[in-house]
Amino acid sequence: MSTQWRHRITAPRFTALLGVFIxxxxxxxxxLAAQIWPTSIAVILSMLATALLSAGSSAGxxxxxxxxxxxxxxxxxxxMALSAANVPFALPANFALGLIMxxxxxxxxxxxxxxxxxxxxxxxxxxxxxDIGIALAIGFAPAALIGLxxxxxxxxxxxxxxxxxxxxxxxxxxxxxxxxxxxQQLTETCFYLSxxxxxxxx
Length: 202
Fold this sequence. Notes:
Blueprint: H1 3-9, H2 15-34, H3 39-56, H4 63-82, H5 95-112, H6 129-146, H7 148-171, H8 177-200
């Protein structure tokens, strides 16, 4: 968004109109999300959409911090909903969620191996194809154990990794340590959301 256009839409006469637009986007995100996930997650995603739009229309730049806080809130609510999920084989009480968390953490961190490390990062040496293959095999295995919801969650995490890294490449190369952290948080969160969406329709 250009500076001139931003000044136009934030002019006093258009402030209320901007509020209508942001509110409409928030309402739309809530309606769409509520078709798939519990209300608590739909509300948080709606809040995230309005917060990011509000940050973009103001002079402050706190989108990164806002995104991290909302990622934690979404993960919390997704895991709460997933605590009632069942896996294809018998497990002791409360063990299923632990397996889901293992799958989310393992897959999201495995996907980081293929992201170019920042120059100052301790592991800045590029991973070899063999290293990437081994990491992905180990990281994806727990998701496969969960069955179809785990595979859907894995697909969501992979898609999030592809889209977010493409966005980072266009916006501000080279990658920083904060970019790696954001990639891990996003892919883990998308794993839980995708798995939860799949469980809702099984």
